[in-house]
Amino acid sequence: MEYQSILIEPVLSEKSNIMRESGQYVFKVDSRADKIMVMEAVKVLFKVNPVSCRIINVASKPKRLRGRPGRTAEWKKAIVKLQKGETIRVFEGA
């Protein structure tokens, strides 16, 4: 699997912004990816040294659209912790 296809998109929420201040970054990742693959992808794409990675499978939630019941899609979330003092410049706006 290619590194660009492992990391789908960053998760930008209020909680992830708070976590980013402590050196933890949250990504939406491919459902087939594991911790080692995610850490390698972050290391190669952003040129940083990840220390640890946590993977969470996010379950679907019920929703309604125009009165019809449905569900949101399931997805996989990865929380990557970097070495102290390192940041991913894309997130910092530089």
List the helices and strands and how they pair.
Blueprint: H1 3-6, E1 7-10, H2 14-20, E2 24-29, H3 35-46, E3 50-58, E4 62-65, E5 68-71, E6 75-82, H4 89-92
Antiparallel strand pairs: 1-2, 2-6, 3-6, 4-5
| CATH class placement | Alpha Beta
What average pLDDT do the residues reach?
93
Q: In which order are the strands of the major sheet placed? A: 1-2-6-3
By DSSP, the count of extended strands is 6
Provide structural commentary.
- With 94 residues, this protein is of the alpha+beta class.
- The protein has one domain (3-86): Alpha-Beta Plaits (2-Layer Sandwich).
- Helices cover 29% and strands 37% of the residues.
- It is built from 4 helices and 6 strands.
- A 4-stranded antiparallel β-sheet has the order 1-2-6-3, with helices on both faces. A two-stranded antiparallel sheet has the order 4-5.
- It is globular.
- The model has no long low-confidence stretch (mean pLDDT 93).
Task: Kindly list the characteristics that best describe this protein.
94 residues, alpha+beta, Alpha-Beta Plaits, 4-stranded antiparallel sheet, two-stranded antiparallel ribbon, 4 helices, 6 strands, 29% helix, globular
